[in-house]
Automatic annotation (TrEMBL):
<dbReference type="GO" id="GO:0006084">
    <property type="term" value="P:acetyl-CoA metabolic process"/>
</dbReference>
<dbReference type="GO" id="GO:0008814">
    <property type="term" value="F:citrate CoA-transferase activity"/>
</dbReference>
<keyword id="KW-0456">Lyase</keyword>
<dbReference type="InterPro" id="IPR006472">
    <property type="entry name" value="Citrate_lyase_asu"/>
</dbReference>
<keyword id="KW-0808">Transferase</keyword>
<dbReference type="GO" id="GO:0008815">
    <property type="term" value="F:citrate (pro-3S)-lyase activity"/>
</dbReference>
<dbReference type="InterPro" id="IPR037171">
    <property type="entry name" value="NagB/RpiA_transferase-like"/>
</dbReference>
<protein>
    <recommendedName>
        <fullName>Citrate lyase alpha chain</fullName>
        <ecNumber>2.8.3.10</ecNumber>
        <ecNumber>4.1.3.6</ecNumber>
    </recommendedName>
</protein>
<keyword id="KW-0963">Cytoplasm</keyword>
<dbReference type="GO" id="GO:0005737">
    <property type="term" value="C:cytoplasm"/>
</dbReference>
<dbReference type="GO" id="GO:0009346">
    <property type="term" value="C:ATP-independent citrate lyase complex"/>
</dbReference>
<dbReference type="Pfam" id="PF04223">
    <property type="entry name" value="CitF"/>
</dbReference>
């Protein structure tokens, strides 16, 4: 069957799994039902147990769904620790449903798949050896990729039913009151883990720092927690950034950042009290610096900044240039440490952040969203999931959510990366539909979605903005790197990409060896 962005979807899987093809970015006003976890009543307040092995043995069964969070990013020690025990105990046919999968988890997931421990995965993304393994048919059942807002929606509506959540935290009291702001391994906001804590049947906290009761502020609360397990070390906070938050010195990135800033300050949304979301890459950090200079010069302050938060954003908060930071995840140690010291850095869960099926997500209040792309095509469809070789190497993250919610969504991307075009006739995988994208900024010029005639009028006389048709940018990229040979895939589907409402926007096929 074909969906509304003209992607062919596998009829057999769609029918077998009861899935619907993507139709529209318009969410409307559906009435939805929320589910609730099965709760075992706890009388005593000391939930500290001596053995993780016993917790697993007494609560996990074959065929169950387990979850983890990825707030430690490359500094995570919990995932491999828990999975080692699950693999050794010989469990089978588990569904792995983490908020996302990072590189430090890859080898253990591959081992678990090969041994039949994990047979299903749903996640925001995967990279490296695991992405390559899945792309070449290593997992029998297709992975389901969901945005952060869609994962929250899926948990709340029971599409993802978590049996046991294993959540690493830098501090907890014996009753299970925990946060990510204190302790040796701070990572800041627990935004994605809060969904697991609220909806999982069993919640297991793992920490290296148990403090006296009551521990406050409590992001995860004692009424949600079944067990507290003391471990030697939960993670390395210095690896939270994982190299993603270094300032760029690349002239191409800096030029793109300057043009993005020009787009923002000349848009109808740049005014007192505007709001924005930026990413964590080098160009995005540079945008924050240029935007700061413009805001100081123009005497403008922002009402809030949103999303995965970096120190440059919390610096704006400290300077009074941003009134509030709505924080679902911290991308570096500086941002994580800031949360403990500034009451205006508000921790938010993934539902509050971006769930399309609630009474109002923060993304719906965004004026400007700055996002990246592995590929963008001439219909403005964006791929952040697969490389030019067809291999899975990215994550949906909050891309669909921020793009859908913001009044102006800007994609930043170089015209080419190495010998591969970024602006292409048709992306390998559609993650975010072109109807959600307003402006593309490359080092060679910008392209504006033809549907946004208001922005075309706003930018047409701005000095320094080289406005081009996106087809012209595509031809420039093609002239620079040539026309690649079409990729070869088998007929087998290795992953399905959901849109934020749960419909299927694209299918990823197995790459031929």
């Amino acid at each position: 069957m074909e969906n509304k962005v003209k992607r062919e979807l596998p009829d057999d899987l769609m029918n077998k799994m009861g899935l619907k093809p993507f139709e529209t970015t318009e969410i409307g006003h559906p009435e939805v039902k929320r589910v609730a976890p099965t709760v075992r009543v706890t009388i005593g307040q000391n939930k500290v147990v001596a053995s993780l092995d016993e917790v697993i043995k007494n609560n996990l069964k074959d065929g169950m769904t387990i979850s983890f969070h990825h707030h430690f990013r490359s500094g995570d020690y919990i995932f491999n620790m828990v999975m080692d025990k699950i693999i050794a105990m010989g469990y089978k046919d588990l569904t792995l449903a983490p908020s996302s999968l990072t590189g430090v988890m890859n080898d253990k997931v591959i081992e678990a798949i090969k041994k039949g421990v994990i047979t299903n995965i749903t996640s925001s993304g995967m990279r490296g050896s695991l992405g390559d393994f899945v792309s070449h048919g290593g997992l029998k059942k297709p992975v389901i990729f969901r945005s952060h807002g869609n994962r929250a929606r899926s948990i709340e509506e029971g599409e993802i039913k978590i049996d046991v959540a294993f959540l690493g935290v830098p501090v907890s009291d014996p009753a299970g009151n925990a946060n990510g702001q204190d302790g040796d391994a701070v990572f800041g906001s627990l935004g994605y883990a809060l969904m697991d804590a609220q909806y999982a049947n069993k919640v297991v906290l793992l920490t290296d720092n148990i403090v006296d009761y009551p521990n406050t502020p409590a992001s995860i609360k004692q009424d949600q927690v079944d067990y507290v397990v003391k471990v030697d070390k939960v993670g390395d906070p210095d690896k939270i950034g994982s190299g993603a938050t270094r300032f760029t010195k690349d002239p191409k990135d800096l030029k793109i950042a300057q043009m993005v800033n020009q787009v923002i300050v000349n848009s109808p949304y740049y005014k007192q009290g505007f709001s924005f979301q930026t990413g964590s890459g080098g160009a995005a950090l540079a945008v924050t610096r240029y935007l700061r200079q413009s805001m100081i010069k123009d005497g403008i302050t922002a009402s809030f900044a949103l999303g995965g938060i970096t120190k440059p954003t919390t610096d704006l908060l400290e300077e009074g240039l941003v009134r509030k930071v709505m924080d679902v995840q911290d991308f570096d140690k500086g941002a994580a440490q800031s949360m403990a010291n500034n009451k205006n850095q508000q921790e938010i869960d993934a539902s509050w952040y971006a769930d399309p099926h609630n009474k109002g997500a923060v993304v719906n209040n965004l004026d400007v969203s700055i996002l990246s792309a592995l590929q963008i095509d001439t219909d403005f469809n964006v791929n952040v999931m697969t490389g030019s070789d067809g291999v899975i190497r990215g994550a949906v993250g909050g891309h669909q959510d921020a793009a859908a919610g913001a009044k102006m969504t800007i994609i930043t991307a170089p015209l080419v990366r190495g010998r591969n075009a970024t602006v292409v006739p048709s992306v390998e995988t559609i993650v975010t539909p072109g109807s959600s994208i307003d402006v593309l900024v490359t080092e060679r010029g910008i392209a504006i979605n033809p549907a946004r005639k208001d922005l075309i009028d706003a930018f047409k006389n701005v000095p320094g903005l080289n406005i081009l048709d996106i087809h012209d940018l595509q031809k420039m990229a093609e002239k620079q790197v040539g026309v690649p040979k079409p990729l070869e895939y088998t007929d087998r589907t290795v992953a399905l990409v959901e849109y934020r409402d749960g419909t299927i926007i694209d299918a990823i096929k197995e790459v031929k060896d």
